[in-house]
Amino acid sequence: MAILRHELRIIGTMPGTTLFGIAMPIVLAALTQGLFTSAVPAGSADGTGGAELAVPGMAVAFAALGAGRSGFAFFRDYGWGTWDRLRASPASTLDIVVGKVAPWVLMSLVQMLGLFAAATPLLGFRVSGSWPALVLVVSATALCLCTFGALMTAVSRTSQQLNSISGVCGLAFAALGGALVPLSALPDWVDTVAPAFPTYWAVRGLHAVVLDQGGLPDVAAPTGALLAFTALFALLTTARFRAGESKVYWG
Q1: Is residue 248 part of a domain?
Q2: Do 57 and 180 contact (CB within 8 A), yes or no?
Q3: Does residue 246 sit within a domain?
Q4: 73-115 pLDDT, tens per residue?
Q5: Is the dihedral of CA 76, 82, 88, 89 positive or negative?
Q6: How many domains does the chain fold into?
Q7: Within a 13 Å sphere around the CA of 61, how many CA atoms are in the beta-carbon half?
Q8: Which residue windows are coiled coil (predicted)?
Q9: Cα–Cα distance for residue pair 7/102, rounded to 1 Å
Q10: Which of 10, 18, 47, 247 has the most CB atoms around its CB within 10 Å?
Q11: Domain span at 209
Q12: Domain-located, residue 146
């Protein structure tokens, strides 16, 4: 909890990061909602338009592109020369990892829900289904992608490597998972590989709530898939993460 509070204080000194994570998706959703209108599935709730596709897609896309942010919390300690001091504290390696990743899960959750709240008056966005179901999918998405961020940190030796890996993976997740562009507008082969990306399940869960008037039972499968990805990323992080490994900040 001490590590978590410390990270939250640091995040609190960067309000622009939070605002950027809400403002930019709003702008892109506003620019693209007309393009998304033609991709609205038949049988969606009455009044559904392009905003109901564009806003959830941008929310998931930016969450994927920002997945690596939690990793810089680790590299920052290397840059400040405080990593060894942190390791010498009573906190275990698990305490350190959870304490540094959890605040970014909360940040991602706030940004996605903030995007939905802001898009309601600005873009006419509306949720036809259950808000508790929406919050459940968003929470599972934030947890999954931030855990993937911890995995990217574990395999990166320098902050530049982390920046490169997170950028490439984030873009692949956003594009091939159907977040940036609806799957119906992508080549047929993307339909085959899309379920291998957690963003596919995040978008599917959000569409079930936003477009199809879904409730908690309707998001059980997407949420379960996201949690399965989370468990996989956590296991891989545990297997790869070495607290004593030398890392370079801005190297």
Answers
A1: no
A2: yes
A3: no
A4: 888 888 888 888 888 888 888 888 888 899 999 999 999 999 9
A5: negative
A6: 1
A7: 21
A8: none
A9: 9
A10: 247
A11: 2-41+48-240
A12: yes
